[in-house]
Every structure is written in C-alpha cells, then in structure tokens.
Amino acid sequence: MRTSKTPGRGLARTLSRTALLVAATTAVAFTAACGGTGADATGGRSVTVYSADGMAGWYDKRFAEFTEQTGIAVNLVEAGSGEVVNRVDMEQNNPQADVLVTLPPFIQKAKSAGLLADSGIDTGAVPAGDKDPDGQYVTLAENYLCFIANPSVDTAGLTWDDLLKPEFKGKLQYSTPGQAGDGTAVLILLQQLLGKQGALDYLAKLQANNVGPSSSTGKLQAKVDKAELLIANGDIQMNLATIAEKDSKFSIFFPASADGKRATVAVPYVMGLSKTAPHQAEAKQLMEFLLSTPAQQTLAREAFAVPARTELREVPTGTEPSPSTLLAGVEVLPVNWNTVLTELDGDIAAYQQATGS
After folding, report:
1. Other residues' Cβ atoms within 10 Å of the Cβ of residue 195
2. Nearest partner of 35 among 82, 84, 8, 74, judged by Cα
3. CA torsion, ordered 352, 270, 76, 119, to nearest 10 deg
4. Predicted model pTM
5. pLDDT per residue as tens, the chain (357 positions)
6. Directed axis angle between helix 280-291 and helix 56-70, to 10°?
7. Cα angle value 222/228/234 (rounded, 5°)
8. In b/e form, how buried is each residue of 42-73, taking b as 16+ CB within 10 angstroms?
C-alpha cells in the first residue's frame, strides 16, 4: 500500500512487512508502509535502500523482480534528498542503510562525509561524467529540473520576470535550497543564468510572491493541482509520473529568460553503497541489478526517467509526453556538482540572508 507524502520531498515506506525502526533522536518523522516480500519469507536475507522520493512505483516492480530472482528482500525508506543523507550520517553507530540513492549535490556530500564505499560493481555502461571516478556513486536515472503550473496559467512564453508579477503573490512556492534537491537546483540554475549575485537579487524579489519554505518538492504538486498554488518547482520524472498515476492536471514548463531562451539543469538519481552497509554483498547484487539492461530499459516507460546506460538513452519508448519531448528547445546547462558542494554552505547562507528565510 502507498502512504501520503511526508515532509522532505518524500514519504517513508518499506517493501518489507517489518517496518524499519527509526532512531528516537532523528528529527524527521518517517511513515511506514507495507508491501512486497518480507525478510522472514526470504530466509532472512535482505537489503535496505534509503532513497530520495519520486521513484516508488518503479522501485516496487524492480524490487519484486529482484526478490524473485535472488531470494533477497528489499526494504525501502524514502525521504528528502538531504534527509536520507543526514539519516545515514546519524545512524553510523547503528547502521541501517545498505544503498543510498539521492540527488546532487547530496550524493557528493555523502562521499565527502565518508559515508560511501567503492561498490566495485561494473559501471562501464554509464558515461564517465555520470559516475564517481573513485567508484563511490553512479547515476541510476537521469532527471531534470522543471516548473509546474495550474491549468489556469498560460505558460506559453512565461518568463522568470513574469513570476515576479503581483498576480502570483501567495500563489508561488519552490522547495528550499539546501534541503531539497530540486530546490537547490533552482538556486544553481539561477546562478548559471544570472551569476551568484544576480540569482540572489532575483530570489530576493521573488520572495514577495513566495508562500514560504518547503522541504518537500513532491508536496507542492497537489497544491498546484488544487490551485492553492499557481506555480511551483518540480522535476520531469516526478511530475510526469504523478500525471500518469494520479491524473494530475498541472502543466510542466521551463521559465524563459528575457531573450526567450529556456534552460534547466540535470538532477539525476545517483546511487552509492553505504560504507557501513550491514548487508554489503546483497547491496552490491541489488545495485548491479538496477543498472542491468532489463531494469534500465523500463525507466522511460514506467518512471518517465532517462536511463543511465548509454545505449538506452536514445531508444524510443512510444510514451508521450516524455522527457525528450519536454526538453526540446531547452538547454541543459552543465554543472560541476563538486564545486557546488564546496561552495554550498556559503551560498545557502547568502540565500537565507537575501530572502530573509
């Protein structure tokens, strides 16, 4: 069964019948959900995945296939991009997670904090730019920052400057940079387009319309559908999946610059092996399975994500709209996420000062 979204761009759920124990010191409340095959039914062999949310439907099917093939049960906990990393960090003395899946720059943060290990798995099918040269993380699925709008909003030609208009006061919200991967991507994209000071100046103006902080990008979708919000940020994979699964009516768009050009940045789901993984052998088996051709070739049609494997990226799926059709005419700007991580604390402090948040 599926639970509703919880704070942190996510919900917590498990594919085991036995709920994961949450440390009492954790600041985040995770909600358990049940489904799949429990560890007791598979001889006690299991692996636990902590993941940024948005891929639950795809995970359900792949984990069931993995359990059927290997006899290894999979437990899943979903939460915000930063929260899953923080939880792995807090649990180092009592490790629970085997595999960590999150967005940049949080996967780089996990590596920098010494939370990941070289998995040793074969990542040869994934481009060099989409994996860590030290073998500590690898892209699982490509994804891209976007915005969503209530059907009442005409998004044709909608610009960044348009979002500053009084008509959007109290009707616009974006997830918080430094807490949510998509929210951080908003800041990074604006830095790419306007420079660091220009991005701060713009976001300071946008604050007049912004409802306030949100650590959950996913929660904004329902608000846009209900017209509680008119505009919010999102990402292509999550938004297309929600439209398909819940018949949401919001539209997906990319704000244009004054010259009419539209741009975005990639926010991929990236996978790594926890350094303190209690079940390393099983975790490596799962990681290899998720990167395999049979698993990867289901990403586009079932999860609306772009496969990590090079040979599958341009394969037509017949599913529309697709990430490729949405990205037509949109420039994907390159980002050095290691540099982003190095400068992130200062950038977030400057953002908070500029916006008063």
Report:
1. 11
2. 74
3. -130
4. 0.82
5. 333 333 344 333 333 333 333 333 333 333 333 333 344 445 679 999 999 988 988 999 999 999 999 999 999 999 888 889 999 999 999 999 999 999 999 999 999 999 999 999 999 999 999 999 999 999 999 999 999 999 999 999 999 999 999 999 999 999 999 888 899 999 999 999 999 999 999 999 999 999 999 988 889 999 999 999 999 999 999 999 999 989 999 999 999 999 999 999 999 999 999 999 999 999 999 999 999 999 999 998 899 999 999 999 876 656 678 888 899 999 999 999 999 999 999 999 999 999 998
6. 120
7. 45
8. beeebbbbbbbbbbbebbbebbeebbeebebb
Structure token digits, residue 71: 């006899």
